[in-house]
Amino acid sequence: MKYEAVIGLEIHVQLNAATKLFCDCPNRPGDEPNRNTCPVCLWLPGALPKLSREALEKASLACLALNCTIQPESAFDQKVYYYPDLPKGFQLSQHHKPLARNGWIDIVGEDEKIKRLRIHHIHMEEDVAKLVHEMEGRTPISLVDFNRAGTPLIEIVSEPDMRSPYDAMEYVKALRTQLRYTGSADCSMEQGTLRVDANISLRPFGTDELNTKVEVKNMNSIRNVGDAIAYEIVRQSECLDRGEPIVLHTRLWDPEKRVTMPMRGKFSGPCVPDPSVAMIVVTDDWLKDIRRRLPEMPGRKAERFSKEYGLTPDEASNMSQEREISEFFEESARQGIPPRKAASWITTHLVPALRDRDVTITETPLTSGRFARLLAILETGVINAHAAKEVLLQLLASDRSPDEIVETGKYRQVSDNSELEAIVDKILADHPSDVDDFRGGNAKVMGFLMGLAMKASGGKANPRLLKEIFTKRLG
């Protein structure tokens, strides 16, 4: 390895506070353009900002979840630059005195060992407006939507501790999980509520120097973060091999062409203290109150799940990744369902079904009680696993009880020997060559014949009894 990558990430996270950072306008950037505006977030001359207490509390929860130290004093500065989406000419951001410092996140590295990635600081700032590019006939035009202007953000600035695309992707995953647990942010890269900028530089392998970095923006998925960094490492390596200097600038990731493209030169304007927003002074009592609101975080919860419910490390990790799923699992397990069975069904069937429907568990009628009842019915043998999957899908769309769905949908499994024997006999009569193959030593044929019999029964046959009859018939 000739070069070593040095990677740091700057991650902007929109806080899901009810209002914007410095005014009472609703914090709903997706509404009809320019609906949620006022003199403050339109940045009209003379309008005075007023800091949102809720945004500060949510930001502080996020900082604590990332193991940061909340600073006794923090303050807003005017970060001076001009773009069409920031017509007042400066952004309110905490440049000199950020809200928190010195955090960290642990990931499992490529060598399967725990790797600690440090966070330099976290600061609050207001989001800018949104540029909308359209065509008016054959003429391209750009419009400005101020709904997003003033949305409360935190920017999480890492130390340059990452050495590979893998490190960066795992860092974003872990950070997203921690923040979602606090309830402070939705952290959706697809919807733009979590935005990642990557700073990448190369140095001769085995040295400690920091060389000129290149910033890459426009990555709207974790996979794109990894791909963009991997491409930039190769691009910079080829530049260095040709003797070309690396120039400080910003690039964009093109997910279709899978390349980074030059965007603009990198510059930083002046940051001066803002006289209109008071300094934030954190008292011990206030900080204690915020700490009490911090939920049990995923790492600690996974350890407890392993001890209390006998889950394997992988099962405990799966059940603790999302706060809503972890609470749903624990509520189900407390109702007498074997915990590992509940975890298996949640991982294998429930989570994929939620993902297919693009909903969270709380956005469906399914409760832990109805889920536990479904698994109890399955345990008694009233229905088989195939039918239970079908009933689960109906529970996601209906508030009917599992018992009612089983009865009205005729999901009860067939356990009548004479009926199953008739199905088996017909299958064997229709597939004599497969019978010969099985008797000749091809054990895999049993699975094929079982599949045919299950299909013939409409998926309702009792698999255990069915296999017993097949085994008896085939000798």
Give the structural class.
Answer: alpha+beta
Distance between the termini: 61 Å
With helices defined by DSSP (H or I, 4 residues minimum), what is the helix count?
15
Helix-strand pattern = EHEEEEEEEEHEEHEEEEHHHHHHHHHHHH
Calculate Rg over CA atoms: 29 Å
- The tally of beta strands, per DSSP, is 15
**Quaternary assembly:** single chain
Biggest sheet: strands, sense, closure? 9 strands, mixed
- Name the strands of the widest sheet in spatial order: 2-5-6-9-1-10-11-12-13
Q: What is the 3D shape?
A: elongated
Helix content class:
25-40%
Structural notes for this entry:
This protein is an alpha+beta fold and 475 residues long. It folds into three domains: 3-284, no CATH class; 296-405, no CATH class; 417-474, Arc Repressor Mutant, subunit A (Orthogonal Bundle). The protein contains 15 helices and 15 strands. It has helices at 53-65, 165-182, 222-241, 284-293, 298-309, 313-320, 323-333, 339-357, 368-380, 385-395, 402-408, 417-430, 432-439, 445-456, 463-474; strands at 3-14, 69-70, 73-80, 90-97, 100-108, 114-126, 130-136, 139-145, 152-158, 194-204, 214-219, 249-254, 259-265, 271-273, 280-281. Helix 7 crosses helix 9, helix 9 packs antiparallel against helix 10 and helix 14 (445-456) packs across helix 15. The model has no long low-confidence stretch (mean pLDDT 90).
Topology at a glance:
Blueprint: E1 3-14, H1 53-65, E2 69-70, E3 73-80, E4 90-97, E5 100-108, E6 114-126, E7 130-136, E8 139-145, E9 152-158, H2 165-182, E10 194-204, E11 214-219, H3 222-241, E12 249-254, E13 259-265, E14 271-273, E15 280-281, H4 284-293, H5 298-309, H6 313-320, H7 323-333, H8 339-357, H9 368-380, H10 385-395, H11 402-408, H12 417-430, H13 432-439, H14 445-456, H15 463-474
Helix pairs in contact: 1-2, 2-3, 5-6, 6-8, 7-8, 7-9, 9-10, 12-14, 12-15, 14-15
